Amino acid sequence: VKHFAELGSQIVAATESYVKEVQSGEFPSAAHSFGATPKKQPALELETGQKAVLGEPPPSYGPADEDS
User: Fold this and answer.
1) Which regions of the chain does DSSP assign to beta strands (E)?
2) How far apart are CA 67 and CA 11, in angstroms?
């Protein structure tokens, strides 16, 4: 069998480097992204005074109406 490369150690080193950068917060950054920049939306205050975590709450439809 012909050996073209010994990649095992390179894969381990690359994975260790990736984990280190993710844990330190160095990666990912804006330089590693593309596309539109997300709009910052103000946090929504709910009736309870708590802030919504997942964005706007769904609309309240109320009880079903037999006529509609």
Assistant:
1) none
2) 65
Q: In 3D, which of 39, 43, 66, 40 has the Cα closest to residue 54? A: 43
How far apart, in whole angstroms, are the C-alpha atoms of residue 31 and residue 21? 14
Q: What is the pTM of this model?
A: 0.45
- What pLDDT digit, counting tens, does each position of 9-38 carry? 999 999 999 999 999 999 988 888 877 666
Going by C-alpha positions, the residue among 28, 8, 33, 7 that lies closest to residue 18 is 28
41-56 pLDDT, tens digit each: 666 665 666 665 666 6
Tally of residues, the chain: 68
Cα–Cα distance, 38 to 30 (Å, whole number): 11
Measured CA to CA, the distance from residue 57 to residue 32 in angstroms comes to 32
Tokens 């964005």, residue located = 55
